[in-house]
Amino acid sequence: MRQSSRITFRSTFRIKISDRESDTLIGYAGDVSECGMKLLSDTPVEPGSELKLRVRMRDRQGEMRQVDVNMICQWSQENTRTGFFEAGLALQEETAEYVRLIDGMRKVRKEKA
Q1: How far is the C-alpha of 28 from the C-alpha of 90, rounded, in Å?
Q2: What is the tens place of the pLDDT at every residue in 1-20?
Q3: Residue pair 62/28 in contact by the 8 Å Cβ criterion
Q4: Helix, strand or coil, per DSSP, at residue 79
Q5: Domain that residue 77 falls in
Q6: With 94 labelled, which of 35, 51, 73, 86 sits at a CA distance of 20 to 30 A?
Q7: 0.90 exceeded by the pTM?
Q8: 101 sits in which H/E element
Q9: How confident is the model over 34-55, as pLDDT tens digits?
Q10: Does any domain span residue 1?
């Protein structure tokens, strides 16, 4: 059961997700929460695989923010409508930096509402 609400993005390309070790772009976040994210990518992710990721996005002032996280793939499937592979990723351990990033997104959304 979902423990926290998701933040879904209108623009698919807002938050870049890269492999932390090779700095290779894997895909983009379709939605995020304090517990994990939905990854949209060109290639499938194997359920059960552990991923060392770097989450990158620009803040309201245009500054690049990045957070390193370790996640586990819970599920993966192809979305035939969009052509992307989708994967549900769960945080292995909560990091203060990641939680601050999500909290910041929530505050911006409330200000715009």
Answers
A1: 15
A2: 345 676 676 555 589 999 99
A3: no
A4: coil
A5: 7-106
A6: 86
A7: no
A8: helix 96-112
A9: 899 999 999 999 999 999 999 9
A10: no
